[in-house]
Write a structure and sequence with these properties.
With about 270 residues, the chain is of the alpha/beta class. About 35% of the residues lie in helices and about 25% in strands. The protein has a five-stranded mixed beta sheet, sandwiched between helices. The chain has a three-stranded antiparallel beta sheet with strand order 2-3-4, with helices on one face. The protein has a three-stranded antiparallel beta sheet with strand order 12-6-13, covered by helices on one side.
Amino acid sequence: MIRLSLFLGLAAFAAAAVASAAELPAEIKQAGTLKLTVNSTYAPMEYRDPATNELVGLDIDLANELARRLGVKIVWSETPFAELIPSLQTKRADFIISGISDRASRRETADFIDYLTTGPQFFVLADHEATAATDLCGKKVGTTRSTSFPIEIEKWSKQNCETAGKPAIQYVPGENSIDVRNQLKQGRIDAAVQGGETLPFAQAQEAGKYRVVGEPFAIGYQGIMFRKDDVALREVVTEHLAAMIADGSYKKILEKFGLGANAVSKPLMNAAPQ
């Protein structure tokens, strides 16, 4: 009797576990496709391979592996960075995985499953005289306007320039990271800011052109962004991402792009500081 009770208890537990496993929303499962939108100007996260014009990058590989495990295909589309969130809100995209930072202000209408550590990083042309980040006080510093970096630059400038009696950094907006780097090469700005995860790739592509200054001056996460009411989709993607972390396939993708040190130990929901 005890053995039978134990068997029945284990069977019930197993059945409950199976029943509780997240499933794809019916409309996605029926269609067999995920609609994903990216801004392909943020190498190595997502970009067009110059040799083949193929859409490639860390986010592309992660999304493709998630889709394989979910049993669906991805229909990719591209848009400017500023249009990524509207594309999610208007349901042109099922979720966003495109180098987008988890920010408190973005959580009013969305949830993030964070999968990569990140942080804004100052960099200059290799022959620039700056040796410390404070050497950039009073200088023109460019970054992508639609990211969190303008706010981070302003915050850092107040703490490290203005409180020390130095002039504030002069923020100069750019459309994307390519535009910002072009402004830097053209001498229109003195320095620039990108996510630290992108700079090793940029330095490898243009050897000897750029030099980082100081350490990343804030800590944050990049996340997969979901509409708040898409709980089922968020849960099933999180389950599969956790499985990829556990079996090592996630780390393998990060290491392919030289970003193994940016890995997280598990998916994190809305984990970036407020």
